[in-house]
Amino acid sequence: MHIIAFLIRRAIQAVIVMFVISLIGFSIQDNLGDPLRELVGQSVSEEARDDLREELGLNDPFFVQYTRFLGNALQGDLGNSYFFKRPALSVILDKFPATFELVLGAVFIFVSLSIPAGIYCAINRDSWLARLIMTGSIVGISIPVFLTAIGMVWLFGVELGWLPAFGRGDTYEMPWGWDTGFLTWDGLSHLILPSVTLSSIMLPLFIRLIRAEMMEAMGTEYVRFARAKGLSTRRVRYVHAFRNTLLPVVTVGGLMIGTLIAYTILTETVFQWPGMGFLFLEAVNRVDTPLIIAYIIIVGLIFVVVNTIVDFIYTLINPMVKLPGAKG
Amino acid sequence: MKPLRHFATAAALVLGMTGMATAQTLNFAYDADPVSLDPHEQLSGGTLQLSHMVFDPLLRWNSELGFDARLAESWERVDDTTMRFNLREGVTFHTGNDMTAEDVVWTIERLKSSPDFKGIFAGWVSVTAIDDMTVEVKTDGPSPLVLHTATYVFPMDKDFYEEGGAEIAKHGDSFASQNISGTGPFTVASREQGVKTVFERNPDYWDTDSPGNVQTAVLTPIKESPTRVAALLSGDVDFIAPVPPTDLERIESDPNTKLVTMTGTRIITLQMNQTRNEALADPKVRQAIAYAINNEGIVEKIMKGFGTVAAQQSPEGYVGHNPDLTPRFDVAKAQSLMEEAGYADGFSATMMCPNNRYVNDFKICEASAAMLAKINIKIDLTTMPKAQYWPKYDERAADIMMIGWHSDTEDSANFNEFLTMTPDPDTGRGQYNSGNYSNAEVDELTIASLTETDPEKRAEQLQRVEEILYNEAAFIPFHWQDLAWGARKGVMIEDVVNVMNFPYLGDLVIEE
Questions:
Q1: How far is B353 from chain A (nearest CA, A)?
Q2: Exposure b/e, A98-127, CB count within 10 A at least 16 = b
Q3: CA-CA distances (angstroms) from residue A94 to A98, A99, A275, A282, A299?
Q4: Rounded distance, CA B63 to CA A233, Å?
Q5: Positive/negative CA dihedral, A126, A132, A134, A138
Q6: Cis (ω within 30 of 0) for the bond into B242?
Q7: How many Cα neighbours within 13 Å face the side chain of B313?
Q8: More confident position, A40 or B97
């Protein structure tokens, strides 16, 4: 029962979040620029532009426009993209697989590297390798992601010529309409540079976080007790101590999803990755307001869903944690 | 289908052995892909680039800014207001339909109903099919620009579009924005907007003299300049445009790539608003600004030579280009003009510029502001993305505003009509004259030039306009933006690119 109550609460939260986001999105749209300029050529008269503006309903007062939007949104229609001339929602959902696979690639890389590196640095903290990793992580944290991206393109794409520098390569369409790049060699090789770039933001942070938490856990009473009890070092380290370092790591991980999504915008733009982030930046440049608003609403939804999942994972890692908002 | 393909392969082999070009694949990257497959939806470079691949115009510009016959085999002026086009025989659309005068008339009628194109065709009062292969165009007065305008007529497959739906949709979906049938060298095999468009060679292309050997052309839009350049250098694509000024040398010096540049025709200027700021209403002050700005320095340092220094609107090769007008940079002269005008202590002015519209746009403005500070004009500069800039421009929100202009007709009068004639909301003239510059003689001469069919008289009129604008410092000219394309060696792009920036890819030859 707890879980159902929890899910209902979260669903309500999601609705409120999306409503607030849509309101904010709508109220800033006038500052984004004039979408008409992107729809017509330079020598079209102001009169013709005004006609088109009227046709698109852009001259209506804010309240009228917003009510119309909300009415349609309740029926699942977030408006038509000016540029793609298709429903904004379906444009974004078409690009979702690309972004999802990019994020998955990045998560795979930083999880599989940061956990061993973090643990190693906590246990052998004075070794030269640990020092090297820690110094490297400081450097990694301070390089802006677009610089990493362009550096990658130049080194591996141009100078060495090992990896493709742009796009998604060959994709394979799965039966339920999901285009995947995981199943072809070409698709995977295209994934490497962007996902390494994207993971480069998270990797140093997670190494440092895991190291700090692990060191703290290693100094606690229960670890010492476990040792005294005669458990193997391996079991003490990787079951008892490590399990407790995971809790804060998952918390931070959940929060960082937001940062990760923000960085997909930059990464996708540099690598011409046909995902949601690139789509969003293009939409901003073209003042494609319906697409912009649909994007931020979807991202809001992703946030709520991810945080819900994070809360679930909590209870799996530590049974003492109760689902927030669930009574009992 | 299969035997046909075998035959094609065999034919290609035979041709290859006799030393002729074989079928090749071209991967190319532009900064954007066309917004729609409908050639009449938006008047933009992307649309025209697409049109030249999938359609053919009646006639097209050649590299000397003259006209080459395409779907119109020849043309003759019947009288002052009538032009007759004789169409090419035996041309078919991609659907197999024959191209006839009916299709041409239908296409022109459709152009006249397109919000973006109807301005260009406003003077064409009637278009009639005299017979199956002859089209007669009547203009509202004597017109020197009928042929210029005819380069915009890309005959469309009337039956195909009428059956599917011929509506021009500026927003929302339409048959024509997703389906396409022309007479051109390529058909669109597949298209994922913003990701990839695949073109296949039209096996029945009428122009059998075309040397082009590109069988498949794949257009990938790559928005970011460094990524686009990297794609060329790494060999992922064979041809890119545009090339950012910072990478010109890199592409030129790379052993596997080459750079092709050309003087462009887009003029970059500043306009000075005479109604917002009374100092700018004084011709002496405007001249002082013209003398204070070192546009040669800007081309050299900021544009890295990627531009041609300008002193007028019309680039060389245009009828209105006046060879006597030269760039003037002289700070002392500027200073004394300011004193003469009574502004020895200077004044303040606001300036607005876009930061992602023209090459190095905001850097040019920053440099200009610094140069004007030397003659005590204090500039308050704001720069912004083009999406926000255009509404500000329409509001005339600053004393000095930047504008770049490319003449749609490749003719000098177009500059005056939009940029320097007295603003008039009824006629639409002076729509982009944010300075409110007004000179009756400029207006008269420009209007006269629109109906003057004697080229010499016309040149005289338009060159006189440039002279007046120069003397009164109606605007501050910087340069004509150069054009640059990068290609892999062996891709003979230099033979098909042109100043309008729509490469004739149908004629492109790729050497082995």
A1: 14
A2: bbbbbbebbbebbbebbbebbbbbbbeeee
A3: 8, 10, 8, 15, 15
A4: 79
A5: positive
A6: yes
A7: 31
A8: B97
Cβ proximity of A123 and A216 under 8 Å: no
* Alpha-carbon Rg for chain A in angstroms: 24
User: Which of B193, B394, B425 is the closest to A84 by Cβ?
Assistant: B193
Annotate A69-101 with DSSP letters as a single string. Answer: HHHHHHTT---B-TTT-SBHHHHHHHHHHHHHH
Does the predicted interface ipTM exceed a cut of 0.90?
no
Residues of B in contact with A82 (CB under 8 A): 171
Q: What is the DSSP letter of B98?
A: B
Q: In chain A, what residues touch B388 (CB-CB under 8 Å)?
A: 31-33
* A164–B236 CB contact, under 8 Å: yes
Phi, psi of B267 (to 5 degrees): -90, 135
Query: Using CB atoms and an 8 Å cut-off, which of residues 213-242 of chain A contact chain B?
Result: none
Among B116, B227, B390, select the one facing A270 at the smallest CB separation: B227
Q: How does pLDDT run across A256-294, given as a tens digit for each residue?
A: 877 888 889 999 988 888 899 999 988 988 888 889 999
What is the sign of the dihedral through the CA atoms of B37, B42, B46 and B49? positive
Instruction: Please say whether the beta carbons of B58 and B101 come within 8 A.
Output: no
**Phi, psi for residue B260 in degrees, rounded to 5:** -120, 120
The C-alpha atoms of residue B487 and residue B237 are separated, in whole angstroms, by: 8
Residue B193, pLDDT score: 85
Nearest chain B alpha carbon to A83 = B35
